[in-house]
Structure formats: structure tokens, C-alpha cells
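2 proteins. here.
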Amino acid sequence: MKNSAFKGSLILLLVSFLWGISFIFQSMASNYMDAYTILYLRSLIGALTILPFMLFFLKKDKKNNIKYNKKDMIIAPLLCGIALCFASLFQQLGLETVSAGKTGFLTSLYIILVPIFGLFLHKKCGLNVYISIFIALIGLLLLSFDFESGFTFSSGDLLILVGTLFFAIQILLVDHYSKKTNVYYLSFGQLIIQGIISFIIRLILGFDVNAFLEMMNLESIISILFIGIVSSGIAYTLQMVGQKSDVNPTVASLILSLESVFSAVSAVIIYQFYKFSDVNQNMSIEEIIGSIVMFVAVIFSQLPSSWFKIKKKSEIKEIDGKNETNNT
């Protein structure tokens, strides 16, 4: 693996960790705020967090005479922002009627959609990556599926799957445009677009100032600040930095899917000190095994793809011929 790709993988691992922890604060914020309010507030806070970095690096690019295509600078944040906004909205709306565990499983199915879409964009992977996807699906099933209730499909599930589709699109868009634009500008613009769309929807549905003020208390403020600064501002920017390297988008989606593992583990740890939810956060034996299996899948995806290449008969004969020559 190239050095830049390895560094990018580590950055994406950090992103999945930050997103996993943020799930706890998102859960706390949802006790006081609706999905649209959470989305436009976290987008605004995240954009403000990135703003000084964006200005600094844009100035640095100008100084180094680095120029970007104007069309890309307009289209990139617009497309990424729209994809991210609808992914987050559909997921949050589905979460209102679907359990968090099932939501995590359905959302992480983008690890299947990304390689499928990637084939149309000529983003091929090694055999080990496809094997890793299969292993990860088993891990996700163990981590998220309720074996006692069985499998049922509802309108909420459909909403989450639509969100999953947009998450897959967002990952591929970031893979494409992070190499063509300044990543801080792209992250900032993406959040601004997401914030504008979600705020407009909130205005259409009705905006009550008194109701908004009633949402504000110490727990909700701390939660939305953490989600905005860490999950939106820092993590989304690091996602673009990581994907700007040579990490294949399918491998990136595998690493990012570890968000579900980190959210489950961090929830267990934090729940021991602070009961942030009425739901018991302890992990079952199936969830623990599922988490381990998912980590194995991600590690497996990082192995050199050359180890899994099936050699052609002509290549085998050539190698045997060289060995005979060396022996003589």
C-alpha cells in the first residue's frame, strides 16, 4: 500500500471514531430538538469551526499560485452538500420509528452501494476488499440485528435506505472533488448548503422562537456544540483529507462503517458514568463478536491486493522458467 493511502486510512479511522462518539451527543440532542433543527444548527456551528482554516489555506494556495477550476468550486460543495443533507435527513426521519441498532445496520449498507456505484466510475478493488465487504456485513448483522424480534420491513426502514443511498453518493462525490478543490473550502461549502436546505425546510414547516428557546438547556447546548464542532466541523473535513489520498472509495466506506462499532463501544463506556438514555447501552455477546468481526474486515481490506491476485498460466510458466534458469 502506498504511504499516502495508509495515512489516509488512519485519518478515516479517526473520522469513524469521532462519528461514533458523536452518536451519543446526537441521541441527547434529539431529546430536545427535532431533526431539522439539529441539522441546521450543527451545520452552522461546523461551518464556523472550519471558516478560519478555510481562509488560511485558501490564502496559502493563492500564495503558492495553486488555482482551481471555478466550475468545480461551485458544483463541488453544492452536490456534496445536497447529498449529505438528504442522507442525514432521511436517516434522522427513519430513526424516529426504527431502532438505533437497525438504523446503524441499514445505514452501513453503503459499503455495498459504494463499490457497485464505483464500478460505473471505473473504481475497481482488489479481491481482498470484496471479501472484506462480505465479512463486514456479517459483523454488522451481529452488531445491529435484533435476533429475538426477527426481521421486519417498515416505511421507516425505507427512509433510512434512501438516506444510505445518499451517503454512498456523498462518499463518491468527496472522492472525486476532494482532489479538485481545497478540502477546507469543500467541507465549509458542503455544511453551508446542508444548513440552508434544512433551515428552509424548518421555516416551511413552521418556526416558533419560543419553542426554540425552550429547547435550549445545558445538555442540549453541550450536545449540539459537540455535534457541530467535532462531528460536522472536524470529522467531515478529515473525511475529505483522508479521501483526498489514494484510499479507494470502497475501502474508505469500509473504514467509515466502523462508526457503528465505535458508537456501540463508547455508549457502553459513557453510560457507566452518565445515563444519557433510558435505553440500556450494554452490549450483548453477539454485538461484541460483531464489533471484532468488523475490525477484522477493515484490517483485511488493508492487506496488499497483490497477495490475492490469481496468477495466469503464462505468468506461472514464466516464473518457473526463470527458476529453472537460476538453478542451472
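next one coming up
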Amino acid sequence: MARMRAKKHLPERMARCTERWFEDPKANKGKWREVCGFPSDCEVFLEVGCGKGKFCTEMAPRFPNALYIALERDPSVCLLAIEKAHRAEIPNLFFIQADANFLEEYFEEDELNRIYLNFSDPWTRQNKPKRRLTYRTFLEQYKKLMKKGGSVLFKTDNDELFDFSVEEFKECGFELSEYTRDLHNSEWDKDNVRTEFEQKFADQGINIKRVVATY
């Protein structure tokens, strides 16, 4: 997949949205609720790989009492998501422009309640499964960062990645629910928010796979 061309005037545009993102997320480790002005008992949801922000800007308003944090590695893509949230003035949505490999540097143990993984890179090239965000080393990391009873909500268009992920979830002790290989024709579609990639794949006739993994 081609990388998005770097956006012009990125630093200036980011500076206009400073209330939406954190330049040093490590400083918030263990105190996200406090820093963002939320009660100490509120739930914290993390989306890993938020893309241009369609999903998070629609999901965060559905859970106004939860703190929603969206992470995106690509600076130009992250900028688009931040600007979208800035225009919408969503009070419980904040962003991190960072790499998912370093989540333990940004969050404390038991700090998260839910993690969204939407259309992550399937890494189908040979000898790359360890880079998948549902590989067991990532799953063990999620378990550490989530409170007991926390869930990973996973969606993909890729059959191989879905089958791989389901087995990884099981091996790491997650309980699976809301399992479907055709989300858009399932009972769970009524509450589903379609990402940009999701709509693109659906328009091509590709079934969307989804599962909720709870630890």
C-alpha cells in the first residue's frame, strides 16, 4: 500500500489543533484520565491505527463518558484525523502520532478498557507474522495494559489474517464473542461504524470479518 504524500505545512497545521493531540505521550503514562480532565474511574478506549479518523470521530461521540485515544503512525494521515476531530469539536477524543510497538511507553498497566484494531496491515509477505498487531507478543502487551475484562475489537477484510488472529487470541487466553465472517450481514452491523478501508472493501464485494476478544 502506497504511503500518503507528506502534507504541506504539517507543523503549522498540527499547531492549530494542539488541544487534540500530545507531542509527548510518554508524559501521560499512568495519568491519561487526569491529563485529559476525565474522572479517575472513566473507561479509556484506544484505537490502534486510526487512519484518517472516520471511525474514531464517529465512535467517540457514542461513548461521551469514555476517554477515546486514537493512535496513528503516519504523520500526514494522523494530521487528517486530528483536523477532522478539531472541526467536529469532540471533547473526549485525543490523538497520538506514534508507533504501536511502543504502547507500554505510553500506557500504564491496567490503564485501558478497550482496544480497537481496524484493518491492520496483514503482513502477508513471507516471515512477517510477528509484525501483525494480533501476533501473540502484541496480545500479551494488550493484556498487560487493559483492565481485567477488557476487550480487543478486531476487524479485517483479510481471511488469512482473521484466521491467524482468532488462533492467536485463543492461544493467549482470550474469550471470543461476536464472531462473524460477514459483518455487514450480521446482527452486529447495526452498531458498526465503517472505516474508509471497510467501505472500500465492501464496495468490492469483500466480506468483512470481526471478532471481540475479551481477557
